[in-house]
């Protein structure tokens, strides 16, 4: 992988060939994330998408150096460049070093599915956000409260001045989510990592929170790394998407290109399993992805999706597929794209659904 300097000022963070390994006393090491490369750009959103267990959260926590004790970064660099500063390799920093702490919660903030993982239940939301602002701006609490109320208004909390005195349990799920977002923005981060922030919310609140995040991103110019299992959400929020399967990025590209012509059978299967991605007349053809993600403990040889892939053929159980570029900044790792005699290769290249009806017992 050629390593080029971070010359583009818009480039904020670059993952280069990052792998993450878990060890346990009784078992061989497990490579849970392999060879991940992506770039996060100021003002843009990259979505990491895939089923449960594919490595999305571990990848995000690696950026913040918040991995479990039994984890280590096996290979790679994570270059991060704050404005007007030289790039720093996050991998080279100790997780609890002052330099890393200055990045975490200052340059990079994170929001979660469950707001109570970042909000304290025993302090009012106003006090918690005041404290965050005081740490970062070295101002007194009175001045911080003015900023807190501003932030709460910005994230759409009605009656912000009074609500600042509420404890998290006194707010609805949607308002708690907004309060957590306000807290994440208190340090004016360069990067916001959002780990399934709308998964627990009803559809209307989910749409409102996505709208809010988009508006705030425009205002703050921050980059966003958005983690979700839902390609419908990706369509609404992201500029670029990286599709993960068993720790590998199997397809990556501009959202428009990936949705117009998905190249990897796994991406296509994810698209067909989501109601909003399918036209009304095709509802009856919705298909869940059959089978389960294999365990990283027993990683299959070759392409990990083979056991669930409707198009699998001999080469899929051989070598790990190389990246095939299929458009400007759009690539996938799939043997069907490189073998001319592959059963569905022509259809995949053209973005059609060749062969998928037989693979799902005629339902697809
Ligand atoms: N401390 C750990 N020790 C061993 N394996 C781990 C540890 N933490 C995570 N893993 C494994 O790493 C893999 C990736 O987990 P991760 O939480 O990143 O998945 P995910 O895609 O975010 O899933 P979800 O949507 O369920 O959060 C999984 O197989 C998980 O079991």
Describe this structure in words.
With 364 residues, the protein is an alpha/beta fold. Among the domains are: 114-188, no CATH class; 262-359, no CATH class. 29% of the residues lie in helices and 23% in strands. The chain has an 8-stranded mixed beta sheet, with helices on both faces. Strands 2-1-4-5 form a 4-stranded antiparallel beta sheet, with helices on one face. A hairpin with a 2-residue loop joins β9 and β10 (248-254). The longest helix is centred in the middle third of the chain and has 18 residues, at 203-220. Residues 22, 30, 32, 50, 52-58, 68, 70-71, 229, 296 line the site of adenosine-5'-triphosphate.
List keywords for this structure.
alpha/beta, eight-stranded mixed beta sheet, four-stranded antiparallel beta sheet, globular
Topology:
Blueprint: E1 11-24, E2 27-41, E3 45-49, H1 56-63, E4 71-80, E5 88-89, H2 98-103, E6 108-112, H3 125-137, H4 141-154, H5 160-163, H6 173-185, E7 191-195, H7 203-220, E8 223-228, H8 231-237, E9 240-245, E10 248-254, H9 255-260, H10 265-272, E11 323-327, E12 330-333, H11 345-350, H12 356-359
This protein binds adenosine-5'-triphosphate.
The site of adenosine-5'-triphosphate has 16 residues, from strand 2 and helix 1.
Domain ABC transporter: 13-271
Pfam families: ABC_tran, oligo_HPY
Membrane topology: Peripheral membrane protein
């Amino acid at each position: 992988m050629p390593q080029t300097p971070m010359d583009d000022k818009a480039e904020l963070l670059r993952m280069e060939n990052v792998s993450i390994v878990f060890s346990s006393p009784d078992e061989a090491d497990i490579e849970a994330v392999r060879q991940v490369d992506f770039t996060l750009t100021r003002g843009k959103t990259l979505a990491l998408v895939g089923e449960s267990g594919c490595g999305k959260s571990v990848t995000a926590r690696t950026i913040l150096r918040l991995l479990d004790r039994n984890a280590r970064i096996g290979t790679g660099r994570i270059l991060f460049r704050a404005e007007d500063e030289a790039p720093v390799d996050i991998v080279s920093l100790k997780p609890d070093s002052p330099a890393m702490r200055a990045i975490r919660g200052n340059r990079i903030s994170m929001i979660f599915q469950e707001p109570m993982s970042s909000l304290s239940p025993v302090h009012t939301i106003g006090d918690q956000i005041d404290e965050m602002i005081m740490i970062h701006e070295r101002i007194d609490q009175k001045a911080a409260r003015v900023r807190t109320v501003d932030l709460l208004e910005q994230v759409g909390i009605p009656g912000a001045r009074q609500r600042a005195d509420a404890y998290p349990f006194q707010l609805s799920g949607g308002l708690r989510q907004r309060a957590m977002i306000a807290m994440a923005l208190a340090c004016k981060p360069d990067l916001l990592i959002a780990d399934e922030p709308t998964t627990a919310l009803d559809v209307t609140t989910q749409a409102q929170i996505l709208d809010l995040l988009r508006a705030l991103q425009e205002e703050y110019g921050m980059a966003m790394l958005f983690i979700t299992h839902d390609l419908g959400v990706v369509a609404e929020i992201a500029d670029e998407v990286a599709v993960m399967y068993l720790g590998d990025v199997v397809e990556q590209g501009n959202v428009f290109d990936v949705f117009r012509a998905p190249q990897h059978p796994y991406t296509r299967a994810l698209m067909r399993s989501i109601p909003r991605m399918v036209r009304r007349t095709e509802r009856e053809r919705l298909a869940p992805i059959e089978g389960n993600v294999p365990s990283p403990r027993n990683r299959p040889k070759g392409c990990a999706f083979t056991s669930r892939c409707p198009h699998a053929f001999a080469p899929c159980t051989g070598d790990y597929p190389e990246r095939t570029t299929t458009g400007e900044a759009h690539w996938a790792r799939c043997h069907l794209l490189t073998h001319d005699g592959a059963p569905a290769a022509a259809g995949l290249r053209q973005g059609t659904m060749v062969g998928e009806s037989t693979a799902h017992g005629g339902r697809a």
